[in-house]
Amino acid sequence: MGNKSLDFDDFVIEPVSGAITQGARVTAMAAGQDPLGPLAKLRGTWKGSGFNQIWRPFNLQVQPPQDRFLELNETQETLQFVEIEGDIPNRGLLQVDINLHGLTYPQRINDVNVLTNGKPTGIHIEPGIWIRIPATSNPQDPETVARLANIPHGTSLVSQGTAKAGTLPLTFPSVDITPFFIGQPGNLVHFPETKLNTATNFRTPAHDIPHVTQQMVDNPNIVLAAGIAGKTIKSITQLTISTIDLNPPASGGGTSNIAFLSGAGGGPNAQSAQMDATFWISDFVDAHGKSGQLLQYSQRVLLNFNTLSWPHVSVATLVKEHT
User: Fold this and answer.
1) Which has the minimum average pLDDT: 52-61, 110-119, 176-185?
2) CATH architecture of the domain with range 36-320
3) What does each C-alpha distance from 41 to 32, 34, 44 come to in angstroms?
4) What is the pLDDT of residue 113?
5) What SS3 class is residue 109?
């Protein structure tokens, strides 16, 4: 047959048989509605910068023995969203079929200060899908959104939640990377690596994080606040998702890890136990009267090892590219 590259430009999902509800996308478009609903503004390519903090497990057999290393990264990022054409039919036993609509995305993140062959070093790549889910009767959920993601370290996740849109106040609640005993979020355990003025071999070297401040380590979300400085926010779409049930709704979700991460006997090597994230899509006007769109997010992943949950926090401010 020979080699032939795959072309997905004309790929459209269509129900092949037995569908009760069909043509939802066509119906929505005819009514002047976007089938992606609150996810519609994600379409396109976004680029920008951010800040990443992660507690990495450190092998206890290394001398001196230490169970942790705090990695800090100043990042640059590209996120590209492409709509999935057509209706995605989900067959129902306890209620009638529903149609989902969504977008695929690749996410690429580099450390801007650590160079490989003269270029920023890649630290994360993530293929995934966002989907819009209509209101359902079984379970009795309102309309929701979900993110399906695959992490190359060996974790897959499904996170579901809600979307709000309008002239919302754009505020970023504080987020903390202090570890705590598993299942006891109020039982914090403080470590010296979070204090930048404390010398340690178990934190990213200062020359690799020239612009990181103590305030950023204490609350990474201040990076998001800096991202909207000098801009007038006109409207916001806020997406709030989690791998655990949010109430409301009684949503789905969860994480799955390869065997190495889950470990055996003495406990996990580094198990991704939970992910919570908020994405803000905002329309803005800058000080020069120029309009644009921002995509900002704050994401926390709990990595479980050595009896503790270690918060891994990533934040970024991305600007939509004009096509």
Assistant:
1) 52-61
2) Beta Barrel (2.40)
3) 15, 10, 8
4) 97
5) strand
